[in-house]
Design a protein that fits this description.
Blueprint lengths: L10 H23 L4 H32 L7 H10 L9 E5 L5 H9 L4 E6 L10 H11 L4 E5 L12 E7 L10 H10 L1 E12 L2 H4 L2 H10 L7 E3 L8 H7 L4 E4 L1
Parallel strand pairs: 1-2, 1-4, 2-3, 4-5
Antiparallel strand pairs: 5-7, 6-7
């Protein structure tokens, strides 16, 4: 059995958009061939044509994104991001790491495999918007990868159910930008709350100013608070992806806080 980390662009969405494009396109063609009030016909053809163009564009984007993120494709962007983020995590002998928003378990497992001397805990709420992701999927993937030093639990990134300074490392990948109505810097502080002094962290997300505010100031505040080192690394300049890929995929501003 091999691990199945899924794709955050589901096949169902691609199928639905493709079918909608076909139906709207056929409807537009039928309207063009029909004979009725010219003014009404113009309005209906315009609306159907616009819908066809919109759905077609979204279908094309979904196919493009699915191919980029697929673990079985040529680009394997998800795998590159996960493994590149995991490289920053080092656990001491018997240490414990936390992966916030573990999804299908990819980053949790990657960190665990790099740190057989410790163990990793992955948490997620596994919401209905990502129905194909689950705790069971994470556990199955961990078994498939032979990573016995993992465990997975339901959890809330906004209020972690762990005491202060509990973990030797914390990590996360493309999670916080999905949490609506929450102060992103406060989410980071909640994550770092459970990190031991001297621990390591690697948090990857779309840290654009519109979402996160002034992250350089945040980094300065972490240093002032006693963190030995903290920096923001742009991951769209060739580290994980190109700026062109990031722009098309809607991932401009992707950065690592380490």
């Amino acid at each position: 059995m091999s691990a199945n980390y899924k794709n955050w662009v589901p096949n169902g969405m691609i199928g639905a958009l493709t079918a909608s494009t076909a139906v709207l396109g056929a409807g537009t063609a039928a309207l063009l061939c029909s004979e009725f009030d010219p003014r009404l016909k113009k309005i209906l053809v315009g609306a159907a044509g616009a819908g066809t163009l919109l759905c077609g564009t979204m279908a094309a984007w979904s196919i493009y994104a699915h191919g980029k993120f697929s673990y079985s494709g040529n680009r394997k962007l998800s795998q590159e991001i996960v493994e590149g983020t995991a490289e920053y995590i080092t656990l001491p002998e018997g240490g414990i790491g936390l992966d916030v928003g573990c999804g299908s378990g990819a980053l949790t497992i990657a960190c665990a495999k790099r740190n057989p001397q410790g163990r990793m805990i992955g948490i997620d709420r596994w919401g209905k918007e990502y129905a194909s992701f689950s705790q069971q999927l994470c556990e199955d993937n961990s078994d498939a990868e032979g990573a016995a030093n993992t465990e997975f639990h339901h959890g809330d990134a906004c209020k972690l159910d762990f005491p202060d300074e509990y973990f030797d490392a914390v990590t996360s990948n493309y999670v916080y930008h999905n949490i609506t109505g929450a102060d992103k810097q406060q989410l980071l502080r909640e994550t770092l709350r459970v990190l031991k002094k001297g621990g390591t962290f690697a948090i990857h997300d779309i840290m654009s100013k519109s979402r996160y505010g002034d992250m350089q100031q945040f980094v300065n505040e972490l240093r002032d608070a006693g963190f030995e080192s903290a920096e923001i690394i742009d991951t769209t300049n060739g580290k994980f992806m190109t700026k062109g890929e990031a722009a098309i995929l809607g991932l401009s501003g992707s950065s690592l806080l380490v």
